[in-house]
């Protein structure tokens, strides 16, 4: 499943870099762009650090359709799902 690779989208002085690759091509989603600091108008770069909150919620939501309550109660089964999704 190859969706897009190395596309640049420009909109009103903003550049957003996107990179989506197949599961076998390593990087799945890499999106960044805009300003890292609006006051100094310093642009966002690929290596700009970012604080991320509640990332586990979206990851678990992706697994939600694949697992049942019984699977979630068994640590060995959950390890298999997480390993397969990585």
Automatic annotation (TrEMBL):
SUPFAM superfamilies: beta-lactamase/transpeptidase-like. InterPro entries: Beta-lactam-related (IPR001466), Beta-lactam/transpept-like (IPR012338), Beta-lactamase/esterase (IPR052907). Residues 23-58 form the Beta-lactamase-related domain. This is Beta-lactamase-related domain-containing protein. It comes from Teladorsagia circumcincta.
């Amino acid at each position: 499943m190859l969706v897009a690779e190395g596309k640049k989208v420009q909109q009103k002085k903003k550049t957003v870099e996107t990179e989506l690759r197949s599961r076998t091509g390593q990087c799945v989603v890499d999106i960044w762009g805009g300003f890292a600091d609006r006051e100094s108008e310093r642009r966002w770069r690929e290596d700009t650090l970012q604080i991320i909150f509640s990332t586990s919620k979206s990851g678990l939501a992706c697994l939600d359709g694949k697992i049942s309550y019984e699977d979630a109660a068994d640590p060995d089964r959950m390890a298999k799902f997480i390993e397969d999704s990585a």
